[in-house]
Predict the structure.
Amino acid sequence: MIPSIPVDPERRRAVAAALRAVLPARCVLADPEDTRPYECDGLAAYRQLPMVVTLPDDEAQVLAILKVCRDLNVPIVPRGAGTGLSGGAQPLADGVVISTARLNRILRVEPYARTAVVQPGVRNLAISEAAAPFDLYYAPDPSSQIACTIGGNVAENSGGVHCLKYGLTVHNVLRVRVCTIEGDVIELGGDALDAPGLDLLAVFIGSEGMLGIVTEVTVKLVPKPAQAQVIMASFDDVATGGNAVASVIAAGIIPAGLEMMDRTSSRMVEPFVKAGYDLDAAAILLCEADGTALEVAEEIARMTDVLRDAGASAITVSQSEAERLRFWSGRKNAFPAAGRISPDYYCMDGTIPRKQLAHVLARIEEMETTFGLRCANVFHAGDGNMHPLILFDANQPGELDRAEAFGAAILALCVEVGGTITGEHGVGVEKIDSMCVQFGAKELDAFFAVKRAFDPGMLLNPNKAIPTLQRCAELGRMRVTGGALPFSNLPRF
Amino acid sequence: MQHIIDSFKDRVRQGRPLRIRGGGTKDWYGQRLDGDVLDTREYTGIVDYEPTELVITARCGTPLAEIEAELAQRGQMLAFEPPHFGAGATLGGAIASGLSGPRRAGSGAVRDFVLGCALLDGKGDVLSFGGQVMKNVAGYDVSRLLAGSLGTLGLLLDVSVKVLPRAPREATLVFDGVAEIDAIRRLNEWAGRPLPISASCWHDGVLMVRLSGANAAVDAAIRSLGGDVMPDCAGFWASVREQHHAFFGGDMPLWRLSVPSTVGAIVLGSPQLIEWGGAQRWLRAPGDAATADRIRATVRAAGGHATLFRGGDKSIGVFQPLAPPIARIHARLKAGFDPAGIFNPGRMY
């Protein structure tokens, strides 16, 4: 854990006074009692009291805040619901938080155009709820969708369990309206399917709040499938399960959802949710079809054949909506279940080429012995995004260090097999050192060039997501002496 | 292949302006051509193709036709259906031009399918962004930014692209005697229903709609939409994509209007062909400054932008001018990736 840095009271008074000169008093929080709730996001091990928190009501106030920060050279941390898992919204002791909490209005739902125009603080699920009367919905469904905001989704390029078929945030956002640190209001993308010039919208999405402050988002709405049905298939070993996933894809099917759990996970969740999982199976695959009743029937029949041929030891097809939700309940409750059987757990987020699954799971199993900790694996099998859950007890001496080393080793393994250190949770502060494993000095330089194109003064969410070359160099030296990647900045939630 | 990359690097280090060229099938697209030709065609070949991973990685000089043939053998495709605009079109050109075909409204654009790339920048360094996996949020998504960048930020060396299975069934419906505004209304209403529409085209009172999907879905859509089923329409959709359709013939300059799909008829007094459910409208009209002002003002008011796609006077500006703060970001990105301004100078703005 990094130590919390004290806030300089003089500086706080000066910055708060400058902000109160341009904003209503209720929009500026400077008393530690009021700013305490903002000291962390979903990466709760990292706590830092912000200098000042602002809660703008509209775009004009956002511009006013940016001007004050620019004039006084104060760094800015944008914040949505604070559900992010990588510390992207972690405050700074000398920085101002811009919370989107009051920018929470759905401005328009346009069923004919299949779009919704919303402010950044609108919750992901609220968009689908507003679109439901028109049989439309917003497709990306991160598991935090009940709480997380669209502004945060834009910052992280959030996914969900249906993104193999329906895409990520980048595929479902048409336009963002952005206040730049230089005081301009720009629109990236548009209501048409493309915009002139470079595709700045594509690079803005997933930029972790480092390129601008979003004040409005236009999202694409898609027709709600009439029906969904899920197959639960058991496999005697993980490799057969992984190959079965490949066979489904090879058969030309893109399932609406394709998720895998290993035995540690199914045994972990079953007492908790009673989903009826096959606890003898080495791996369980959930394979969903959606569409019209006829389409679903056709796809379920094809997938059943493919999975049986691929060596599934048991196959059950959900026969009702209640049963479908029960099959999914275990997968969706894997994280709380981990919290139930273990005092602490650490969720990883690497992505690997799917063909490497059996190899990677075997290596993780070896690491369980090496590090003396258990690891449960849930896997977005369709797109290769793994969520190994390392179980540990922070109160046992040495366990936290071992969990940290275990996590870093898994991320290094993901990069080694051609994957990435983060599929959907973002880099933030959590994985910033692992960025040095994935990228070289020249790529990091290019990232800084992108950053400076939008934010020449480097005031927006500084020191997140992209490590400086110096930081990587220091890490490299430590790696040589230590023999293993140091990973001092791990969470312990 | 390393010696070819080294020769590209040498060319960059010489510091003279370079004009990146693959098959040369899109030389007419964009602003001016400047610099010595840097031919990419020697740097060719599919590097990696794993049908079950839904990813193909190939070198920029690989012919698009070779990639499509390889994918077709495994029942897969490039879902953005890129136009070739001539024999010899390469993957690098398809990505750098950022042009998508008839399937765009239903499946997505070039940038939606780009997963990663290796880039030779203006300093002569090879950079690697993204990867071969579908979900990847490590670092800024530079590879998608490069789609449609017209080679102005560097030379794309290798590109990884997501591919999709071909639908088991495809059919085209024809509706005769449909007025322009009725076609636009129908296409927008249909897009709000779970129908497997994969392409649409309206021209001169005839609306064509392509359906691609599961057998049951296509059959149900045919029953629900009506119209006449055309048995084999691959040739028709290719003629729209490759602009061999009669609408595209003749010497009159061609404008591309990218607008919100719901915009009603855009009355500019010239013939139009409408694609992408109403979001892409082709217009045959003069390519002079006065016409450009009229078209751009109309299209901007409708929430879109206009490109002088083919022909006309390029000095009037092929692409819609950018708002000054956005133009500033463009200039800084260019300076970051290509500080000496070597690659495709002036091709975009």
In short: The two ends of chain A are 11 Å apart (CA to CA). Residues 399-416 of chain A form the longest helix (18 residues). Chain A touches chain B through 95 residues (CB under 8 Å). Residues 477-493 of chain A have pLDDT under 50 and may be disordered.
